[in-house]
Amino acid sequence: MAERELILAFESSCDETSVAVIENGETILSNIIATQINSHKRFGGVVPEVASRHHVEQITECIDLAMAEAEVTFDELTAVAVTYGPGLVGSLLIGVTAAKVVAFAHHLPLIPVNHLAGHIYAARFVKPLVYPLLALVVSGGHTELVTVSAPGEFAIIGDTRDDAAGEAYDKIGRVLGISYPAGKQVDAMAHQGKDTFDFPRAMDQEDNLDFSFSGLKSAFINTVHHADQLGQTLDKNDLAASFQAAVTDVLTHKTIKALQQYPVQQLIVAGGVAANQGLKEKLTAALAEAFPNVDVIVPPLRLTGDNAAMIGAAAHIELAKGHFADATLNAVPGLDLPQASEA
Amino acid sequence: MKLLALDTSEQAMSVAVMEDATLLAETTLNRRMKDHSEQLLPTIESLLAASGLGADDIDRFVVAAGPGSYTGLRIAVTTAKTFASTLHKELVGVSSLAALAAGERHTSELIVALMDARRGNVFAGGYQWTDDGRLKTVIADRHLALTEVLAQIAALGQLTVFTGPDALSMRETIVEQLGSLARFADPVSALPRASRLGALGRVAAPVADIDAFVPRYLRLTEAETTWLKTHQETGHEPYVEKV
């Protein structure tokens, strides 16, 4: 019987403390996620110092639970993996510190993983990946189009110039009186309303694959404030539907444009906003027409948000390449994937 | 008993390996060339190697648990609790101010350890050696205005030794308020030394719940302080949930 490859993976880049055990890069033996959403709801968004404090109180318990649920011992592990960026530095440091100690104390190699690579490799738990492939990464911190030419070979071909898509959802959510994080509720409201406001689709007609959401956010806020001043009440569901239509139009159009330039068999939709029903519907419909042979992979809800299982899947690729870090590994909050021109 | 003591509460970093009361190896770095995150574990590795020990040989991990720089505290505490938890060893948290005070070993006077907490505030703790060699808490660690802590000490009316790297830079204010009652540690003794921390941790009780162990920040975050002005802390959903 072939020996099992077991990776203990850590993720703590924002407001989830997560530890997972992954077998052979494709099977989740455990994926413990401690979310701090109830804490940050108090402040209307993630407060970095509060997030860091929660991570310290959770980290070893998450390790215990992940090891126990996977029914493995430290002796059986092959390697330790950790998100070292991008993310909040104080949050990242907890996962990085704990992962380094486990690797040293239990004589295991340490694999540094880029958080965005993790989001993309969450798709590996749905089915085997076929290269080259294209990924649309959309979350509270990221909106990127990424090509993956071979295992672990990434190149950013499109990026947001300002706000991330998920960030725009949270900001307009606040205007609608929705508590953080707003994405799920805006999505639900959008399905009850109509696109009547015709908000701007920034950069939609431009030739590049980049995004911009700050103009849309401002147009939304101005529309609401202007109505407030006139004493008018706007239909919140229509507002949500109009906002979501603008976001998903641009995401869909740019993804189609990317597929025209980079022929692939698989499109991965990754990150927290991948759970958005409106995006899924529009993207699936557009692809069915324009690229019926492209397979769209949207990981299940639990794997689109931040979690350590996806870090373990990405680490499996890095392990095969022998990409290791030593005890000096530090958090890199501004870490990014390579730009297409650099790749 | 073999123990590893570590302190990254402030700018200086100190790590020591001890066997009972005997110091086997120690490193103190006071010129911060790298982040604590980059240099703490490599230092632990080299000190263990120099002591002929592996991590698994350590019976007890002693950490300076605060107060201090929030990020620094978290790095040492996360390191210590991850070692202790995954190797099934003991964990002891010691006040970072008590560890500083313990650097003044040969005095029977009141020792006050200070850390700059910015905007005129300090973290302060008052300690005194007993005849049987224990370090007794006289003023519990607290976060307050420097002028306020000096007023409390003035009220005691006794000779006081100030220690900690920040205390030396506050000398002028301290002398102004306390005059000849104030003494100062020399700059070398004023540095945190993990061997002193380890000596305190050797005789302290290990923590019962390693998972729940967190730094002693002695201060809420600004966001929480502001929120509490208009909200009640009771009856809420758990702030962190396993999902």
Structure description:
- The complex is a heterodimer of chains A (343) and B (243).
- Chain A is α/β, with parallel strands linked by helices and 343 residues long.
- Chain A has two domains: 6-122 and 303-321, Nucleotidyltransferase, domain 5, CATH 3.30.420.40; 129-298, ATPase, nucleotide binding domain (Nucleotidyltransferase, domain 5, 2-Layer Sandwich), CATH 3.30.420.40.
- Chain A has helices at 37-41, 48-70, 89-105, 115-121, 165-175, 183-190, 214-229, 236-261, 277-290, 301-304, 308-321, and strands at 6-11, 16-23, 27-35, 79-85, 110-114, 133-138, 143-150, 153-159, 266-270, 295-297.
- In chain A, the strands form two sheets. In chain A, strands 3-2-1-4-5 form a five-stranded mixed beta sheet, with helices on both faces. A five-stranded mixed beta sheet of chain A has the order 8-7-6-9-10, with helices on both faces.
- In chain A, a hairpin with a 2-residue loop joins strand 7 and strand 8 (153-159).
- The radius of gyration of chain A is 20 Å and the shape is globular.
- Chain B has two domains: 2-96 and 192-220, Nucleotidyltransferase, domain 5, CATH 3.30.420.40; 98-184, 2-Layer Sandwich (Nucleotidyltransferase, domain 5).
- In chain B, strands 3-2-1-4-5 form a five-stranded mixed beta sheet, with helices on both faces. A five-stranded mixed beta sheet of chain B has the order 8-7-6-9-10.
- In chain B, helix 1 (36-50) packs across helix 2 (70-87) and helix 4 packs parallel to helix 6.
- The longest helix of chain B is centred in the first third of the chain and has 18 residues, at 70-87.
- The termini of chain B are far apart.
- The chains are: A alpha/beta (343), B alpha/beta (243).
- At the A-B interface, strand 3, helix 1, helix 2 and helix 3 of A face helix 1, helix 2, helix 8 and strand 11 of B.
- Strand 3 of chain A pairs antiparallel with strand 11 (241-242) of chain B, so a sheet runs across the interface.
- Chain A: It is an enzyme of class 2 (transferase).
- Chain A: Keywords: Acyltransferase, Cytoplasm, Iron, Metal-binding, Transferase, tRNA processing.
- Chain A: Substrate binds at residues 137-141, 170, 183, 187, 276.
- Chain A: Its cofactor is Fe(2+).
